[in-house]
Each structure stands twice: as structure tokens, then as C-alpha cells.
Design brief:
Blueprint: H1 3-18, E1 24-27, E2 34-37, E3 43-45, E4 48-57, E5 63-71, E6 76-81, E7 89-97, E8 100-109, E9 114-122, E10 128-134, E11 140-148, E12 154-161, E13 175-181, E14 187-193, E15 201-209, E16 215-222, E17 229-235, E18 241-247, E19 253-261, E20 267-275, E21 283-291, E22 297-306, E23 308-309, E24 313-316, E25 321-329, E26 337-344, E27 349-354, E28 365-371, E29 377-385, E30 388-398, E31 423-426, E32 433-438, E33 448-453, E34 459-465, E35 469-473, E36 480-488, E37 491-500
């Protein structure tokens, strides 16, 4: 074995030891007639990650879902249509249970031309163990969220929507629903939440079981004037409503999206405060409410102001800290973009990261977040592929600090630390594709140029690029050492070297 190969192997072993958390940022390409996204959290089983991709079609009616199977590096192994290729499935939530996974959402019966709610249990090979399909009063019901109770039973929350044939919802005949089942999916109790009045629509976003076995769900009461109120519902162990409460504040709309139980026995709720889009001072904040289990507000705050803000999905990562994905739009962009932030129970931001694939003229969205076994997070949503005007499934794996590459520093709540380099190039050594990560998000709209040179100083590759992260195809280079140079408007920015395997 020659010295060059030995040197490469040693470098590879060094990089393996240093980077204990893995990272990737991919959009899953499919046929351009498919409009796709991931609304569910990612699921890890052993060394494999599974994502449920929801698909609608540009050339026909209906929806379907597929299981996208990936290795830890982000490479897609397979993407196979799930369960029923005739009746379309829209999957809204998935959780791991001790002997498989549970999913829920909406199913379209093509023969009856009718939507129903469904939930199903899959084993660890993602084969169907059982599936329950339930008809409701109205024509467009769905289940949005599910939890596994401590006794092995399940609770599902959703909505039974009555949709007009011309579009829009009949508010007087649309109800939030809560279903409790046994471990085999047989319904034990179903609650149809009564409307506040004939002009409101109640929806639920999250549900938990507390340490005493009570069930709490949160969401919003939607009003015609778009100034919505936060909604909290308490149910007993049988799924029957004990009380429900609206949270309002003069001059603001409020919506809740996450609920957690704290060590002191109180509840922490995370959501959004906002001014509607038609107001001259349209803006949005994240909010936190700490309430008792009787519904009394103990503490509340709003933080992280943006021009426009969307709903959030959050994880409790320590006793005091939370990590949330959200969408925001600032005044310098016409499209919403995603971010990830970590903060404490009082709304003090620890760090905040923004993400983009450099798509300037389209929205980029994360819908969900899941913890990874290495301490990082999977962010799932929808993005775009060059030359294809159909949105596609987007999956980003970050480390425990929200970084897409090792050592990133984009905390927005503190003064930025200086970077040893503006760009991070990885992996190094590289096989076929070299990724370039821009450490400073404020510079991502600039156009840069990368030139690669062989050991004789000959230019072997030149690429113009922009955005936070760029992938460069170098498969055509022969093995060896290369040098690179990055310039901006012909001004030298950075230089270095890499090894091509």
C-alpha cells in the first residue's frame, strides 16, 4: 500500500473521531407532477431514518403518502408508497411505540368520494399491523396529533370540518374532535368540542398526558376578524372535557401550538402573538404562557419579533430549555423562511439559526422537528429542486447546536464572534461532492466564485455560487491533493486545500 493511500486513511480516521454528530441537508427529487412535503417528525429505528412524505398531484386529484428510508448520512435507500395505493393517505403525525410506530391523518375513499379519519399501527419493518378508518358527520375530517398514554392506550386530536363545495368552511358545523382508544385502536370515547358560537372554528395543535393522568390539549379559537384566541382544554382520564378556556389580549391574535408539563406541576404553553396581515403594523412574536392545571395564568411573555411569523413545533430538551422550528418573513424578503431557536422557559433566547438552500423567489418551510439519537435534530418540511416548479420533501439534520456543519456560529441574540474562516468546506477528504457552508448568514445573498487548482497550478474547476450551503460536483477529478480559492467581485476571500479520494 503506498504512502498516499495510507495518508488518506489516517485523515479519514481523524475526521471520524472529531465529528461525532452527523449532518445533512437534502431535498428528495421526484417526478415534477408530484407536489410534496413532510409534515411529520422523522423516526429513527436503529441506524435508519424514516420520513413520511405527503404527495398531491398536478395532473390528477387526490393525495398519497410514501415512506422515505434513509441512512444516517442522508442518502435515500428507498421511497415507497405506503399502505394503500388506491385510497390516498395524508399522514399528519407519527410516534414510536415499544413494538413499532403509530400514524394518523386523513384517508380518501376513492369509490365513495369521501374523506375519513384514520390511524394505523405499523411494525418495525413498517408493515401494517392494523388500520382503523372512521367516518364522521362532515366531509373533510382529519386527525392532527396523537400520543401514547402511560397505560398503553392512545389519544388522537383533530377536526371534523364541513367544507363548502365552492370552498371555505361552515363554522357552525365544524368541530374539534378528541378520540381515546385502547391499545388495538378500538374507540373508548369520542368528544366533539362544542363551538364557542356559530361563527368560530376551534382547532387543536398539541396534546399531552400529565403526571396525574389528565389530558390537556391546546390550539386556537378562530374568529372571522382573524384576531384568534388561544385555546386550552382539560379532559379527564376517560377523555371527557373538564374545562376549556380562551386566552386573549386586546389588540393581538393568539394561537397555541405546544404544551408541556413542568417539574412543579404547572403547564408551559408555547405559541404565537400576532397582528393580522391587513393591519399597518403587521408583526408576530413567539409567546410563552405558564398556567396552573386549573387554567390560571401564572406568567406570560412574548419574544422574538418578526414581520410575519407562523406556528411552531417545539421539543423540551432539558428541564428549563426548549428548541422550536418556526417560519418567519422579514421586510427584506417576500417569502417565508424557516429558523430553529433554543430558549428557556422565560423566553430568553440561547441561540437562533436560519436555514435556506439559496432559493430566493419561493418559500422554504419546516413543518416538524424530531430529536436524533446523537443529540441533534431532524428538521422536516418542503423546499425546491432547480428547474422543477413542484415543491419537494426537505430533510435537514443538524447537531445539538442547530448547526448544519461542525462549529457553525450564527447565534442572533449575541454579538457575532469572529470566524477563523468565512466558508467551511466539507467533507475533506471528498469523494464526489464538496459542500460549501457560509458561516455568516448576512452575506448569503452575495455571489462568490470557487476555483480549484491541481498541484501544478492548473485550474481544474470553476463555479459561481451563492446561498448558505452549496454542493459542488467534483466526481471528474482524479485522486490527489487540490487547492482552492474563493473570491467575491474578484477580491480574494479565502484559500485552502482538500484531498480528492
Amino acid at each position: 500500500m503506498n504512502k498516499h493511500i495510507i495518508h488518506i486513511i489516517l485523515l479519514l480516521s481523524l475526521f471520524t473521531e472529531v465529528y461525532t454528530q452527523n449532518y445533512f441537508d437534502i431535498v428528495v427529487p421526484t417526478n415534477r407532477t408530484r407536489v410534496e412535503g413532510i409534515f411529520t417528525p422523522a423516526i429513527e429505528l436503529n441506524d435508519t431514518t424514516f420520513n413520511f412524505i405527503r404527495t398531491s398531484y398536478r395532473n390528477k386529484a387526490g393525495e398519497s403518502s410514501s415512506i422515505c428510508k434513509m441512512v444516517k448520512s442522508g442518502d435515500v435507500i428507498s421511497n415507497i408508497t405506503l399502505l394503500d395505493s388506491i385510497n390516498g393517505l395524508a399522514i399528519n403525525d407519527v410516534i414510536k411505540i415499544h413494538d413499532g410506530v403509530l400514524i394518523c391523518g386523513q384517508i380518501l375513499n376513492v369509490a365513495q368520494k369521501k374523506y375519513s379519519i384514520f390511524y394505523a399501527k405499523l411494525n418495525n419493518l413498517f408493515d401494517t399491523v392494523w388500520i382503523r378508518q372512521i367516518s364522521t358527520k362532515h366531509n373533510n375530517p382529519f386527525l392532527f396529533k396523537l400520543i401514547n398514554l402511560k397505560d398503553g392506550r392512545f389519544v388522537f386530536i383533530g377536526s371534523d370540518n364541513h367544507i363548502r363545495s365552492t370552498g371555505g368552511t361552515y363554522p357552525d358545523s365544524t368541530n374539534a374532535i378528541i378520540i381515546k382508544t385502547d391499545s388495538l385502536g378500538n374507540i373508548l370515547h369520542q368528544t366533539d368540542l362544542p363551538n364557542i358560537n356559530n361563527s368560530t372554528i376551534e382547532n387543536q395543535e398539541d396534546v399531552i398526558e400529565d403526571s396525574e393522568g389528565n389530558i390537556f390539549s391546546v390550539g386556537a379559537v378562530r374568529y372571522p376578524n382573524l384576531y384568534n384566541n388561544g385555546l386550552i382544554i382539560k379532559l379527564d382520564q376517560n377523555g371527557r372535557i373538564i374545562w376549556s378556556k380562551e386566552i386573549s389580549e386586546e389588540g393581538f391574535g393568539i394561537e397555541f401550538s405546544n404544551i408541556f408539563e413542568l417539574e412543579d406541576g404547572t403547564l408551559l404553553i408555547i405559541g404565537v402573538h400576532y397582528k393580522p396581515f391587513f393591519e399597518p403594523d403587521v408583526q408576530a412574536w413567539s409567546n410563552i404562557y405558564n398556567i396552573s392545571k386549573e387554567g390560571k395564568v401564572i406568567f406570560s411573555t412574548k419574544f422574538d419579533k418578526a414581520d410575519i411569523g407562523g406556528q411552531q413545533k417545539c421539543l423540551q430538551v432539558t428541564k428549563e430549555n426548549y428548541v422550536c422550528i418556526k417560519t418567519t418573513q422579514t421586510s427584506d424578503s417576500g417569502f417565508i423562511k424557516p429558523l430553529l431557536m433554543k430558549f428557556d422557559r422565560y423566553g430568553n433566547i440561547i441561540w437562533k439559526r436560519r436555514y435556506t438552500r439559496g432559493i430566493l423567489d419561493k418559500p422554504e418551510i419546516f413543518f416538524n422537528i424530531a430529536e436524533a439519537s446523537d443529540g441533534g435534530y431532524y428538521l422536516t418540511g418542503t423546499n425546491w429542486v432547480d428547474g422543477d416548479n413542484s415543491s419537494k420533501a426537505w430533510i435537514v439534520k443538524v447537531d445539538s447546536n442547530g448547526c448544519v456543519v461542525s462549529g457553525c456560529n450564527t447565534a442572533l441574540n449575541i454579538e457575532k464572534e469572529p470566524y477563523s474562516t468565512l466558508f467551511h468546506l466539507f467533507p475533506n477528504p471528498v469523494s464526489d461532492h464538496l459542500s460549501i457552508y457560509l458561516n455568516d448568514e448576512d452575506l448569503q445573498d452575495r455571489s462568490y466564485n470557487l476555483k480549484c487548482f491541481d498541484q501544478y497550478g492548473k485550474i481544474v474547476s470553476t463555479t459561481d455560487f451563492r446561498g448558505r450551503k452549496t454542493n459542488i460536483d467534483l466526481h471528474f477529478l482524479v485522486s490527489g491533493m487540490y487547492f482552492y480559492q474563493i473570491t467575491y467581485h474578484y477580491k480574494y476571500i479565502q484559500k485552502g486545500k482538500f484531498i480528492k479520494l
